[in-house]
Amino acid sequence: MHDAGRGADKWLLDSVRLTWRAKIFLSLELELVSRLKEAADAEAIKVFSANLHDLLLAAPANQRATTGLDPGLRTGVKVAVVDGTGKLLDTATIYPHEPRREWDKSIAILGVLCSKHNVDLISIGNGTASRETDKLAQDLIKAYPQLGMTKIVVSEAGASVYSASELAAKEFPDLDVSLRGAVSIARRLQDPLAELVKIDPKSIGVGQYQHDVNQSQLARALDAVVEDCVNAVGVDVNTASVPLLARISGLNVTLASNIVGYRDQNGAFRDRKQLLKVPRLGEKTFEQAAGFLRIRDGDNPLDASSVHPEAYPVVEKILAQTKREMVSVIGDSAFLKNLRATDYTDERFGLPTVMDILKELDKPGRDPRPEFKTATFQDGVEEIKDLQPGMVLEGVVTNVANFGAFVDIGVHQDGLVHISALSNKFIDDPRKVVKAGDVVKVKVLEVDVKRKRIALTMRLDDEVGAVTRSGYGLASGR
Fold first, then answer.
1. C-beta of residue 444 within 8 angstroms of C-beta of residue 385
2. Under the phi-then-psi rule, with left for phi > 0, alpha for psi from -120 to 50, and beta for the rest, what region is 404?
3. How far apart are CA 408 and CA 477, in angstroms?
4. Which residues are CB-contacts of 139 (< 8 A; sequence separation ≥ 6)?
């Protein structure tokens, strides 16, 4: 439209301009910003979910007596000793660092506790004074070589949140809040999944822009990840806590509490069918949850596997036709490989189900989590000022973002491995190379002590000071 000199042309043009400025443009701008925000939220939630999944499925140290050390300076190092099942055995507070500097006395106290409870592992939180406490643990191991202890520095993210929570108060009503954190640090080394489910996933700190995204969507996504991880691993119904049981498909906090209450009153469950005696746990719930609940050393060996009770007839059919005992069949790979799955299918159980059953019989209760490994921080490298370009160090991936991975190398400040420095070939997603909890080797490229920024590379042949093709510089960690 243009002004042709007619009486209404100017009025029409002004109306169109005003409509565009005040209505159409504003509406389009708001819609575009809203769509971009939704896309950004979805991507950030996806990153957080992937990192949480990797962290929850980190390798467990399993049932080994562990001492948890929650480092501190003026307030002391909080100590908690737990047995192989996570039961609290002993606590103490020691003051090896400034201002008291009771180094030898602290080692003596720890030595008595570790000897008394046959401790295998020492779990050290990675907060303030963690490297000084790591050195204390090293001297402790040297002083008591007969115990054969191993020390590991673990993330203490969320430990303080758990310590002050209602759940911790119920679990340890007579224990000081500061000591509850040491218990959590010990347990999360034994079984990260079982301990981290007690903490709000948003407090674990593996997100990307987590405070800027839609919080209700984030909560739903993270809850789904936790439930998937718990169901993938399964839980021992005779040792699992209420928060862990509540994450099982079909269960909730009320039913989980009823299971624990029944267990406390009647002793350990001997078989899965006993679960039907738990108040308010009906047939439908049993059908949903039973396959994820394990009973170790029970009356039926299948109860320790992921084979659902509804599928037990398939196993019974195999035993009847082969004239074998259950105990001799479980774990006999050669025998199970020679079975034809099609011989045991029917209208109720199809070929995929039977194949899954045979796979489970081969390795019953197999844990999808990786083998337990630890990183060894380099002696003498305890603070960011100790770093020098060119150093090759071992570290643990603490967080993965779309632009790279953050690695804890033991200096209280994570370094960044940019996405372009993760591999010698092009990658579009850092998770194709690393995930949270991985132990990796990195080279220090640049260090900015004043700004507390560390640039790392996993391409160990990279030259110090060289800028990658993406031109990345330094970025901060946690």
1. no
2. left
3. 9
4. 103, 107
**Residue 298 DSSP one-character state:** -
| Residue 390 Ramachandran class (φ > 0 left, ψ -120 to 50 alpha, else beta) | left
User: What is the structure's pLDDT at 411?
Assistant: 87
The two three-digit tokens of residue 63, written as one number: 């049932």
Residue 476 has pLDDT above 80, yes or no: no
In total, the chain counts a number of residues equal to 478
* Cα angle, residue 210 at apex, residues 208 and 213 outer, rounded to 5°: 115
Both tokens of 293, joined, read 């609940």
**Residue in the block written with tokens 């907060």:** 127
- How far is the C-alpha of 104 from the C-alpha of 92, rounded, in Å? 15
Question: Checking phi first, is residue 258 left (phi over 0); if not, alpha (psi -120 to 50) or beta?
Answer: alpha
CA atoms within 13 A on the CB side of 279: 10
Residues 296-317 have a mean pLDDT of: 91
Q: Are 73 and 128 in contact (CB under 8 A)?
A: yes
Domains contained in the chain, CATH given: 66-190 (3.30.420.140), 228-362 (1.10.150.310), 384-457 (2.40.50.140)
What is the pTM assigned to this prediction?
0.77
DSSP one-letter code for 95: -
**398: phi then psi, degrees, rounded to nearest 5:** -100, -25
What pLDDT score does 11 carry? 86
Helix, coil or strand: residue 425: coil
DSSP annotation of 198 reads T
* 5-22 per-position pLDDT tens digit: 777 888 888 888 898 888
Q: 135 vs 122, 289, 395, 398, 418, CA distance in Å?
A: 12, 45, 17, 22, 30
At 181-240, the pLDDT tens digits run 999 999 999 999 999 999 988 888 777 677 888 889 999 999 999 999 999 899 999 989
Query: Comparing C-alpha atoms, which of 409, 416, 414 is closest to residue 379?
Result: 409
Report d(CA 312, CA 310) in Å as an integer. 6
Long-range contacts of 215-220 (CB under 8 A, 24+ apart): 217/41, 217/45, 218/45, 218/48
